[in-house]
């Protein structure tokens, strides 16, 4: 494979900076993981549960250089049945340190241990990094959906190689069921995805010197 | 014009990859619509107004096997009591091709007994279309509202309790396209 080792690249005509070894920010690669089936889970009342499929099984990964960071963009499609739903999401990754023993999330920073949340068991090297939330509220009707989108830039990846991600969901104590990707223009609780939505996680490796 | 042919650009010393052909973002295109637009019908499937729905949001990939990172950002206005808006996403190859729906759809739900609320919805999808070198790829959004509260008030927002067609915060609804080399 042809490679060029260089400190800076400028365009010739305008002498505009394009990329440099000392400047962070160039995108090295982009990957997306998606789940587009309708998935309901009514067992998440204040209980942390794995997301379905590839979103929650730990198989989302990106091969990274050490020191680079990962821009994580989450697009979660939160459906609703009468009357309201409030769903929280947690993102775990294994790129932040050499070893992280399995167990429950015990960070004091996010209040996880100061509430009655039942946290999920955490595999080896799986650290909670970022979360998001989505909610939808219309009294007396069903079929709605609300898209939750959030992005986070991770700290530097410690070791070169595959960095894995997994996501969990957690329902509010009074409006908990998850209706992932469920939507309909009609007032129905049917498991339809009429508008072809997908819940996705997009990973971008960002170069850092 | 000076040209260098290589698969990867490495930093000196660390030899970390700064750029490589596989995964590099080659170009970005943005298309926006900033007028207030309303559709006061429930369960009515329409093309979005202007460049968001007429097929002129396009990108011509540099390579014949690139992926397209599609991002839509829509400003949904609201009038009492609630609005649920769904957006469907389509692409076509060349201006005369047929439209293909893909799983980039998204939705907005907003409930309040006061008028003039607004919220911004953003959604991205990495698309792997089949096309040939030099082809132009077009994108469009369609809107359909919920049967019981599906009016669209695109880019409509006010700071007071009114239904006036104002966009006081200068919101722009957009389609944003990025070519990702593979």
Describe the structure.
The relative contact order of chain A is 0.34. Chain A has a single domain, classed as Jelly Rolls, CATH 2.60.120. With about 210 residues, chain A is mainly beta. Chain A starts with a strand and ends with a strand. Chain B has one domain: Jelly Rolls (Sandwich), CATH 2.60.120.1340. In chain B, strands 5, 6, 8, 9 and 11 form a five-stranded antiparallel beta sheet that branches. In chain B, strands 3-13-7-10 form a four-stranded antiparallel beta sheet, with no helix packed on it. The interface between A and B is large, with 54 and 56 residues. Strand 1 of chain A pairs parallel with strand 1 of chain B.
In a few lines, what is going on in this structure?
By secondary structure, chain A is an all-beta fold. Chain A is built from no helices and 16 strands.
Task: Report the sheet with the most strands of chain A, covering strand number, pairing sense and barrel closure.
Answer: 5 strands, antiparallel
CATH topology name of chain A, in short, is: Jelly Rolls
Report the uncertain regions of chain A.
106-114
Rg calculated over all Cα atoms of chain B: 20 Å
Number of discrete helical segments of chain B:
0
